[in-house]
């Protein structure tokens, strides 16, 4: 299975997922740089996800027992990918049931073979026609539920899902249109700070992306609004029949119709509520998947002045979106439609009601036109201070020991009070706007009540409408008043929804890294990478000072380089550029002869092992912290890495061994153990480039052993390490000294130790 088969697989899968994508860029740009053949799912899945990134898709691998898999197929509303159990890797797409049939497509040797079945049973009964599915035991599917062996076999399958934006403008979403994916890519990789997307535009995008469910909700709302009008019309007819002394049978029929209409309206409300519940679940799921998709791909420069965990707090506004949607889609929609339908209905009773209804609608428009924007601004400002309060509380929790050991200090409470004051002022300003709107709506409500009562009474007295019409009009008035009260209660919720979308947009608008480019595996040999740097210059966004200035160095494959220097000399920034974390540099940086900017970053990072100072332990098992969940890492490689960094004795003493759960930050572990875990993480994949900060080892002998392993003749990587330790300098091939972003010394240790920079920085000698 090669890249063209993968593209066919992706195109077919998105087709069955009802996602329209232009694959021109994938076929004509991506494919021409690929010649790798995939023989197993583990090696294929990362490449499939890399391709899927272009079309905003993601894929996950699953396994299920045969009975579970059958249930999934029967209840499935999305396609699944299984694999033929042969020597080759042959994917098979099983579509969901549509138009009474299941389509199965097998992709092999750039061809697509299609099979059609009436139902799941027929598919499974004829599974031998397309090949047995990949299972642990390698047996074909058995439909006999009495077979005890069936539970021992598990089927591997893959499912995909679209990563659709929850809070982007409709005009910015170019991905799922026939005009290609280029617009979306430019959107992802551009600087969004130069663009302003209004909260209302984000709301339109949310409604558009869920238009099927929204349409159902609006359809139910219209039906409910119309059916609710049956009640006043029925009562009007009943009063007319009774006052006219007509047959009781007709009255019974009308009463029955009114009761049935009420029941039908209630049933439709239940359906509407169920649809909203599905929508709420979809919103949360889509938001979580989108955040998960975007966070690892965020451009580091774009958040250089922000604390990333604090930014992610905006995810909690997804809960506000969930809670606001039912109010907006049910209460607000129903209330608005009932007001409109009610005013339209009474307009049939007399022409004066038409003029009265138009006047009220104009009044309602004026209220929200002049107070709406101010209400949104104050709501967003209020939200800003809420997040400032949360950020400060998180900072106190993060630096808990600092504040505990500080003794008496008023900083925590004074800073909290400062942010709370800002919040309360913003909240009061927002409430002032809400109060103005509430008063205006109450005036609107009084005008409706008084106007219709007075106008209706005059028309009855002048015999221009009858008593039944007047009673019906009064019932309509009660419905309209009830709807106005719903309108009042949803005003603040509407602001909360727009504000929540704006906050979520702060994350979804952050530009992503451009991962387009050539796969480095296409031109890499089985040795360390070769790096050539010429006139490398870099400064951080929105700053004038250059951190790296005209740095030039050539690093041979399997060479070890020590980066030493003064404090603030740009050592960490240099390592970030080498690692592909910072992109806006000038000058030349080539990897194995290819410019880094032309290389696919994901493929490049697969060759990198890094042990930089900003790496940390995350919440998960010890095994997960070392392997990062990469299925390609074997158990033997994991044990090799643990042994090489001296972790084996520590792991052997743990009750749960590699399955021991670690807390975020690894606070329960000694610092040197955390360093060893991160070092094991950096070497477990046997990378071709190893970039490292100096690591803390209390045992100098153990540290020398580690350095000897990293720089030895058997090392398969090119090593770049930041350190001012003479031991490290002595054991590496060369040392490069940095000062204020410039190279001031370079050479072997015997030469470097005689220089002024070494005497001053390393030995601390002063002239």
Descriptors for this entry?
4-stranded antiparallel sheet; Cathepsin B, Chain A; 26 helices; alpha+beta; ABC transporter transmembrane region fold; 767 residues; 6-stranded mixed sheet; Rossmann fold
How does this model look, in words?
With 767 residues, the protein is α+β, with helices and mostly antiparallel strands. The chain folds into three domains: 3-162, Cathepsin B, Chain A (Alpha-Beta Complex); 193-508, ABC transporter transmembrane region fold; 517-607 and 720-767, 3-Layer(aba) Sandwich (Rossmann fold). Helix content is 53%, strand content 14%. It contains 26 helices and 18 strands. The strands form five sheets. The chain has a six-stranded mixed beta sheet with strand order 12-15-16-9-17-18, sandwiched between helices. It has a four-stranded antiparallel beta sheet with strand order 2-3-4-5. It has a four-stranded antiparallel beta sheet with strand order 8-7-10-11, with helices on one face. Helix 13 runs parallel beside helix 16 (467-508). The longest helix is centred in the middle third of the chain and has 51 residues, at 411-461. Residues 135-152 and 169-194 have low confidence and may be disordered.
């Amino acid at each position: 299975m090669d890249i063209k088969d993968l593209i066919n697989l992706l195109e077919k899968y998105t087709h069955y997922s009802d996602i329209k994508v232009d694959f021109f860029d994938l076929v004509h740009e991506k494919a021409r740089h690929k010649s790798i053949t995939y023989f197993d799912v583990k090696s294929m899945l990362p490449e499939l996800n890399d391709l899927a990134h272009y079309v905003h898709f993601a894929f996950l691998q699953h396994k299920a027992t045969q009975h579970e898999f059958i249930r999934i197929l029967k209840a499935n509303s999305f396609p699944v990918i299984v694999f033929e159990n042969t020597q080759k890797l042959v994917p098979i797409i099983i579509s969901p049931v549509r138009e009474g049939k299941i389509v199965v497509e097998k992709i092999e040797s750039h061809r697509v073979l299609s099979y059609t079945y009436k139902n799941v049973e027929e598919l499974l009964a004829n599974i031998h026609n397309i090949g047995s599915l990949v299972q642990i035991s390698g047996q074909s599917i058995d439909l006999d539920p009495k077979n005890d062996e069936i539970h021992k076999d598990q089927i591997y399958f893959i499912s995909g899902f679209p990563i659709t934006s929850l809070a982007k403008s409709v005009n910015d979403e170019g991905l799922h249109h026939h005009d290609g994916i280029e617009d979306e890519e430019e959107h992802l990789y551009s600087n969004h700070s130069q663009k302003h997307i209004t909260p209302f535009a984000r709301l339109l995008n949310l409604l558009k992306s869920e238009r099927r469910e929204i349409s159902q909700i609006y359809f139910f709302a219209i039906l409910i609004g119309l059916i609710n009008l049956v009640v006043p019309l029925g009562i009007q007819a009943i009063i007319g029949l009774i006052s006219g002394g007509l047959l009781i049978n007709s009255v019974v029929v009308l009463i029955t119709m009114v009761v049935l209409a009420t029941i039908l309206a209630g049933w439709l409300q239940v359906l509407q509520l169920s649809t909203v519940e599905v929508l709420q679940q979809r919103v949360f799921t889509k938001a979580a998947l989108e955040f998960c998709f975007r966070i690892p791909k965020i451009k580091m420069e774009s958040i250089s002045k922000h604390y990333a965990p604090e930014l992610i707090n905006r995810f909690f506004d997804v809960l506000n979106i969930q809670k606001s949607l039912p109010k907006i889609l049910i209460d607000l929609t129903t209330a608005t439609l009932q007001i409109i339908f009610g005013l339209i209905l009474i307009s049939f009773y007399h022409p004066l009601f038409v003029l009265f209804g138009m006047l009220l609608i104009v009044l309602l428009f004026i209220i929200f036109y002049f107070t709406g924007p101010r209400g949104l601004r104050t709501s967003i400002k209020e939200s800003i201070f809420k997040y400032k309060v949360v950020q400060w509380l998180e900072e106190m929790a993060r630096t808990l020991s600092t504040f505990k050991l500080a003794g008496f200090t008023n900083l925590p409470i004074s800073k909290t009070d400062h942010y709370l004051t800002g919040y309360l002022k913003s909240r009061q300003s927002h409430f002032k706007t809400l109060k103005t709107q509430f008063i205006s709506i109450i005036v609107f409500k009084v005008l409706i009540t008084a106007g219709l009562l007075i106008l209706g009474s005059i028309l009855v007295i002048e015999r221009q409408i009858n008593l039944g019409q007047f009673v019906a009009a009064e019932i309509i008035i009660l419905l309209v008043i009830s709807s106005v009260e719903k309108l009042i209660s949803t005003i603040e919720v509407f602001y909360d929804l727009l504000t929540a979308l704006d906050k979520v947009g702060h994350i979804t608008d952050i530009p992503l890294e451009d991962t387009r480019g050539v796969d480095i595996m296409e031109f890499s040999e089985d040795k360390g990478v070769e790096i050539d740097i010429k006139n490398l210059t870099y400064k951080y966004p929105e700053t004038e000072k250059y951190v790296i200035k005209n740095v030039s160095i050539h690093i041979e494959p399997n060479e070890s380089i020590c980066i030493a220097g003064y404090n603030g000399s740009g050592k960490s920034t240099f390592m970030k550029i080498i690692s592909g974390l910072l992109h806006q540099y000038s000058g030349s940086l080539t990897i194995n002869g290819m410019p880094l900017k032309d290389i696919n970053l994901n493929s490049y990072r697969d060759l990198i092992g890094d042990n930089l100072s900003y790496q940390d332990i995350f919440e998960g098992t010890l095994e997960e912290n070392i392997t990062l969940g990469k299925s390609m890492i074997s158990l033997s490689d994991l044990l090799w890495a643990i042994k090489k960094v001296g972790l084996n004795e520590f792991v052997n003493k743990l009750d749960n061994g590699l399955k021991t759960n670690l807390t975020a930050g690894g606070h329960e572990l000694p610092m040197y153990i955390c360093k060893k875990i991160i070092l094991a993480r950096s070497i477990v994949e046997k990378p071709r480039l190893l970039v490292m900060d100096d690591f803390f080892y209390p045992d100098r002998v153990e540290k020398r052993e580690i350095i000897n392993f990293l720089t030895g003749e058997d090392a398969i990587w090119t090593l770049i390490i930041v350190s001012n330790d003479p031991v490290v300098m002595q054991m590496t091939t060369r040392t490069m000294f940095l000062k204020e972003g410039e190279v001031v010394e370079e050479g072997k240790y015997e030469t470097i130790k005689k220089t002024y920079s070494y005497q001053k920085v390393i030995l601390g000698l002063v002239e």
